[in-house]
Amino acid sequence: MTDLSTVKGTTKRAYLSYLPKGAGLIWVLVLLCVIAAILSPAFLNPANITNVLRQIALFGIVSIGMTFVILTKGIDLSIGSILGVCAVSTALLLTSGMSVPLTIIAVLLIGILMGAVNGIGITIGGVPPFIMTLGMMVMGRGLALTLANGQPIGLGERAADFMWLGRGFALGLPVPVWIFLVVAAVAIFTLRYTSYGRQIYAVGSNEEAARLSGINVKAIVFSVYVISGLLASLTALIFVSRLTVGEPTAGTGIELEAIAITVIGGTSLFGGEGGILGTMIGAAILAVLANIMNLVGVSPFTQQIVKGAIIVGAVLYEMMRKRKKSS
Amino acid sequence: MLQTANQPDEDDLAIRGDNHSILKMVGIDKSFPGVKALQKVSFSVDRGEVHALVGENGAGKSTLMKILSGAYTSDHGAIWFDGEITAHASPSEMIDRGIAVIYQEFAQAPHLTVAENIFMHRLPTTRAGIVDWSEMEVQSVRYMERLGFAIDPRTQVSDLSVAQRQMVEIARAISRNAKLIVLDEPSAVLGDSELEKLFVTIRSLQDEGVSFIYISHRLKEVFDISQSVTVLKDGEVMKSDKTENWTTETLIQAMVGRSLTDYFPSRSPNFGDEVLRVTGLSCGDMVKDVSLSLRSGEILGVCGLAGAGRSELLRAIVGADAIDSGTIELHGNSATINSPRKAIALGLGFAPEDRKTEGLFLDQSVGFNITISRLRDFITGFRLNLGKEKAAVRGHIERLRVKTPTVETRIGNLSGGNQQKCVLAKQLNAKCDVLLVDEPTRGVDVGAKREIYDLLVELTEKNGLAILMVSSELPEILGMCDRILVMREGVMTAELTKDDASEEEIMKYATFH
Description:
The complex is a heterodimer.
Chain A: H1 24-39, H2 46-71, H3 79-95, H4 100-123, H5 129-147, E1 153-154, H6 159-162, H7 164-167, E2 169-170, E3 173-174, H8 175-193, H9 195-205, H10 207-212, H11 217-243, E4 245-246, H12 254-264, H13 276-295, H14 300-326
Antiparallel strand pairs in A: 1-4, 2-3
Helix pairs in contact in A: 1-13, 2-8, 2-11, 2-12, 2-13, 3-4, 3-5, 3-11, 4-5, 4-11, 8-9, 9-11, 12-13, 12-14
Chain B: H1 9-15, E1 21-32, E2 35-46, E3 50-54, H2 61-69, E4 76-81, E5 84-85, H3 91-97, E6 99-102, H4 114-118, H5 133-146, H6 162-175, E7 180-184, H7 192-207, E8 211-215, H8 219-225, E9 228-233, E10 236-242, H9 248-256, E11 274-283, E12 287-295, E13 299-303, H10 310-317, E14 325-330, E15 333-335, H11 340-345, E16 348-351, H12 355-359, H13 366-371, E17 379-380, E18 383-384, H14 386-399, H15 416-429, E19 434-438, H16 446-463, E20 466-470, H17 474-480, E21 483-488, E22 491-497, H18 503-510
Parallel strand pairs in B: 3-8, 3-9, 6-7, 7-8, 13-20, 13-21, 16-19, 19-20
Antiparallel strand pairs in B: 1-2, 1-4, 4-5, 9-10, 11-12, 11-14, 14-15, 17-18, 21-22
Helix pairs in contact in B: 9-18, 14-15, 15-16
């Protein structure tokens, strides 16, 4: 019995929920950058900035996929393993003599395929996303290790053809950063200006209402896991190109990073709310934070503690916001 | 909301020293936002009697029982139980005092044993503080025997029949020394022979001095088992009397007998061609071989008691639930509708019963909710034209007189009536010309109800829409519909014209008697 006879709260945020929730978020980022610059003059060093941007790009791309998934109230724990399989595949295909364009296409298809398996398990099989992608995470890592025989696979002489993707520059910015920006632009357009995007929000907001509203819920859910898999494979290509090695352990733990970035970016774990701009800022916040800690010499172990606390903090913040809204 | 129960003094005196009654509820008021659920309800149960509580859906029976069980607090009024006043007691305190409510949905742990369920809240222990399993089983057997049932106490509850599970619930109540047991539509889940067994059990407990409140729609049962009957209607007690002083006719009249006011808009319908024909539709246990036909411009009502399969019928027609058999024709063409998506594409819109969980995206905006079923009209080039969308939403809002500050307002912040108008706007936006609306005025306050009625009438008369409307409120059905279908247990039991129909007539087909 919560019918309200009067209208309260005329916030515009709901309709524009795909815009950054907090303009506040951008200020957090600015503040972090200021702190970083004060703590370590090295932060503003162009080489360091490029480094941070590349970091943002790598984590940002998978986080965009994660954002699509989380908007439907799902979760994808398998992106790290998909990345691993794709990294090994990239190295194997290149060293077997396949051309670079064909390799890229093949690897992207592998990512799509693995995402599709997640999607089928979840929609047709009815396996909860958490379990399905957890299974895929374990299987995928096993597959990567099997394919690579447990060893990193160097690109050898093929490295020269392929390095442009991860190490190259265009118009003064690293190529991965351009890729990230293109992916983000497409994602923003999709979520905001297509009915497909609108339906993603609908499914995450209320699955049953979405079904009764004539939305093909299964197709939507399936598609976001495919997108997530595709973007994991794209990240794998950049990874291998940058390191010139296909490591079977590549991407371990990146799913948690991506979830953290998405949540910090204001996308609700309960679905239906959030968007790409937030995720982009979230990626920047985490990358700058990691960079500060590296620059001032915080141990990697301590960094993990901080990151974990930030994830919980971001979710706590969202819970409080929800409670406030529903009261 | 009013805070406390201040008891009328004379009632106070009247109750004191009255050892005849086990329960007296006096002057109970309860309001929810926009709804007066109970008004000055007084209700008493004698020691050792079975007191039937009857009324239409929404008459206030459940609210009254929730106040009795401590789940709700009344705004006003007093409750005397077993000679003591109970003010603001919690559910567990009420259970300790001897009131047990057995709902249709049993509060059982299906994977535990019969004995564990009976003693769930106070497992007997040995002196060492360990659960005394053998004692528990011995006592369980004793309780079940007292009820005339022999069930192995080590059986898992999930392996029992519904009737047996009901007995476990009653055994649990007895084990906690219940003096008054409320049975909420116990027969809804029982077959005839099981019901007879339940009655035997009730009578034997009655001889031991246990009192019952028996809630049922089935008037025959009321006459079979009860000694007194109280009729609730619109939150007020219509009449309370000994069972022998009632007849089926007087009982139905008391349940429904309210004159139709000029509350409903006048209709001057203009029927067109048949737009929807359903033949022999069956879906699960709740819809059995239902046929109906609907013309454009017509409002066809579907009524029946809770659980008669009304909502399920609508869900089956729009493809929300998979049908077992039957055919559907739209505008004379046979249609295979296997999903709501298909239904909408064919112009068949559905406004579900539970707006909040099935109808709306509460966290999204008014505009989002209205356009989500059909966005393709707003695509120019290959992108959504948000300006065009917004303009269309404004048009719908104006036409349906939705009161909202902006189209961006979160729909969860609107009142029930305005939310419902948005649900209708969504069907219009999707270009649906056949609307299936389930309880269109549920959770809508009185003033807004009239607006919804006006809109529905307007849509049929001006736009030639056809509406299939399910409602639990008979006056609403009678006031709005051109024809009325009555359902009972999944079967269509009558088709009445507006002129033939009366609440008494409908209740006759809707109930067992």
